[in-house]
Amino acid sequence: MGVAFLVDFEHVFRRGERLSAARLSYKVRHKSQLKGKREVAATWRFGVELDYLEDDLVSHSKLWLCRQCHLSRQFNDAKTINGTAHVVDHLKKVHKIDPATGLLPVTPVKPSSPWEVASKVAGSASMGSHTPWQESEFQASYIDWVMEPGASPGRAAELQDDVERVCAEIAEGEASAGKGDAGGSSEQDHGQC
Q: Could you tell me which residues belong to the region Disordered (predicted)?
């Protein structure tokens, strides 16, 4: 039962312990499955069923050998089976596979701020900042974000001019508003625009 792949019986591990190849064997299918009267569980499309003679040489364990883990030579490729819930959990958590439907979709991560979204849209490797002491990084991220793919370098220069003009207007407004107070408003307080 299960997917067909070459099993290296010398490299079958359960919970990090190598199992004796001499005591491992393929599990024989139940007659009702051979006749097609009983449906095979979806988990068997991703592994094979093995039988293992335990150390007491009397009891047998039914194992599920994960195909992907076994072929990538992991040290926990065999799982003892008593139901299929833990096998399904393994496929979902480790391999991102839902046995019933195929691959699970990648769930999008909710961004922590709009600035994170803007930096990803811009395609920049680092997140732009909107804090005054990192204003130049923010400007670069903003220009990247506003620029559409394939835009001309002239358009980038226009945007840079617009940003500088707005910054100058802000600085003039702050300077005129700060003339009356003793502390004033300094470039050090607000950073460079």
A: 170-193
